[in-house]
Amino acid sequence: MKNSIKKTLTLLSVLTFSISFAQNIEGVVTTNQNIPLEAANIVIKGTTSNTISDSSGKFIIDTKGKLPLTLLVQNVGYKTAEIEITSLAIPSLQITLIEENALVEVVVSSRRRIEKVQDVPIAISVITGKQAEQTGAFNVNRIKELVPSVQLYSSNPRNTGINIRSLGSPFGLTNDGIDPGVGFYVDGVYYARPAATTLDFIDIEQIEVLRGPQGSLFGKNTTSGAFNITTRKPSFTSGADFEVSYGNYAFLQAKASVTGALGKKIAGRISFSGTQRDGLIDNVATGRPTNSLNNQGIRGQLLYTPSERTNIILAADITTQRPDGYAQVVAGVAPTQRAPYRQFDAIIADLNYQLPSLNAFDRKIDHDTPWRSGQDMGGISLNVDTKIGNGTLTATTAWRFWNWDPSNDRDFTGLQVLAKSQNPTRQTQITQEVRYAGQLTSKLSGVVGVFFIDQTSQTDGTEESGNAQWRFAQSTTSNLWKTPNLFEGYGIKTDARIRATSAAVFGQLDWAITERLHVLPGLRHNFDKKDADYNRTTYGGLQMSDPALIALKKLVYTDQSFSSNTDNTDFSGNITVSFKATDKINAYATFAKSYKPVGVNVAGLPTLAGQPILELAVIKPEEVNHYEIGVKTSPFKNSIFNLTFFNTDIKDFQTNVQAAELGVNRGYLANADKVQVKGVELDASFVISKHLTINGAATYTDGKYVKFTNAPLPLEETGAAVSFKDVSGTTLPGASKWAGSLGGELSDKAKFFGNAGKIFLGIDSYARSEFSSSPSASKYLIVQGYALFNARLGFRATDGLSVQFWGRNLLDKDYYEQLLPAGGNSGQYAGVLGDQRTYGVTLKYSL
């Protein structure tokens, strides 16, 4: 009996010791010079369990049997490391801490594999989620201040164009009948609508901005670049972040993200973002400010890991915007070549009207038509990653929608010229991408994939004249124009529909001829089909049978109907040669043949003798030849200095033309014979010391029409005897010769409410030179160059409470983001104003 008890006690002791031992995690903490780090603090995230490393850098910490968990490894002067532990069956951990302000080698996934950005033979800029948060870059419009090669122009979410190197979207009002030249991807899902770029980012991990044609790596062909955005994924370790910001003009922004395990193989993450702000422009007619912010977004993700080789993520998101806004302010009046009585100043004098201010930067309007810019965007996606052989097979299936509900005052005055101007739109898309990326042989790796998108877009628009339309439309001295109620309530109803289908096979190889010399050929075959129907009918106004009065009404609006059906196929490709001369110098050269698919006009066509010019219904595809040479260097420790030289030639460039006819609601598309854009880009980052970092980027861009003989007339030449102008040799719209950003941060270790972290002062600046804001250069539509300065001061911690005081446009610079003529080209033109000085405070708490 005694022997049995003794054996039982011995067994229990062994089991107890084994269990206790199994609950411990051991490890060694070293510096990046492999020197043992003494007194490093090791904490189990979300608990009070902690220990410190000894003189040899070794530590042991009791997990108390709770898995999964995250270890936080901290030491003053070093960046905190987070290590996720999912199993206790692991050898001793080897943990390396990086010195504060040491330049971290950023990794990217744009080539469908994880690799260091300095090793990638593509011109690419990377903004981490933390960097975006710290600089206040909560949407793409703010990102352009960090990546000067990016341009974004938006008079409202629908009329948004995003360009890289001054190419991508036609400058001006958006036409649904063409594809964007800059791809926008979130977690591998292609967003077809440029309005997506106006939405707030939700829980972003990283933003990769690729410059130049991207057809052999991404599903949708793009001629000038791509945004590859990844969000933070669900984690089996519980965690949460909460952030709130408050600023002047009642700015309020709240963000939250919670993640954790829902089962042994299922984890979830839910993220929220909301932004509100009062208007920045005073409407003296209504007595309240306009151009407010009112955005809400939510994103949910479920991660399922059926095995170690397979990850499945189901994601859904929806974002709504309900601003009172996107109003534009009259910025000036250009004299046209029309008769004196048709000039804007003469027109408003006859109507006994005065603008509320002759200075746009008084920020006063008196618009009588309410501004509304409501949009809803969302979707659902399923992404499956599974490792097969030496690579990964990825399948991404997605459905998305976009609803647009606008109201605009396109005459930009308090007169009832246009009583209504609204084109509500609903767009839906289905996309499917399947690709395999991996190591094929010891010297050959690559990616191959197929892509399909089917999208439909339907617009049911209304444009209606008010009681002042007769005077703005008056084109003769006949007294018949003064006929009471002739034009009041006279307008057009528009039904415009597009169905666009695209399918592609694409791939790129990476052939390692030697360890340092690589050749990378890429190929793409595309099929595109677009079916469009446009029908416009007139209604309202004075009902009568007088042919003379009917003729006057038809000078303003006419019925118009046309259909177009077109498709085309295209082979495109690229080849890159990359040579890593040393571990610190990586050079490459690229030639790419790319294209933008055929376009269709669905916003009305200009007329000739009262009939639509049907040959403009279909727009030729762009043909692109692109050359690029780049070198990526690390000239000394903790430094990056990269240079890129590029030249892009485009045949049949798709451009947007603002017509003088009111009935051409959004301008129309046309082809410029040839366009060339060339330039130089610089990217640099330097860690001066453990306290100071500096980063900068600059670009020189020379973009011009090489040949464009049938361009629209500039605003001041409206009314000339000719209808078109040869603008060959002139500058492309939206292209600044120079643009750049420069920033830095000064920091030191500190404690705040018991949390170890650092106190910091950061300054960021952005500048660009003047640019044309019209498809045909007009001396009145030149946006002058400007420079902006932003700053932030605060305390930042990995865990616990962080606080940041921030200010944007600290010098309160008055500047335009865009200039555009009013409908009908009567001479007045409006400006999209940049924000004045804003400031506030941000509090963040991380668990």
Automatic annotation (TrEMBL):
Q: Write down the superkingdom of origin.
A: Bacteria
What keywords tag this UniProt record? Answer: Cell outer membrane, Ion transport, Iron, Iron transport, Membrane, Receptor, Signal, TonB box, Transmembrane, Transmembrane beta strand, Transport
Q: How does it sit in the membrane?
A: Multi-pass membrane protein
Key word Iron present in the record? yes
Please name the InterPro entries in this protein's record. Beta-barrel_TonB, Beta-barrel_TonB_sf, CarboxyPept-like_regulatory, Plug_dom, TonB-dep_rcpt-like
Ranges for the TonB-dependent receptor-like beta-barrel domain? 357-810
Keyword Repressor (UniProt): no
Q: Where is the signal peptide?
A: 1-22
Where does it reside? Cell outer membrane
Q: Please give the CDD domains that the UniProt record associates with this protein.
A: ligand_gated_channel (cd01347)
Start and end residues of each TonB-dependent receptor plug domain:
117-226
The UniProt family comment states: Belongs to the TonB-dependent receptor family.
Q: What is this protein called?
A: TonB-dependent receptor
UniProt organism field: Flavobacterium algoritolerans
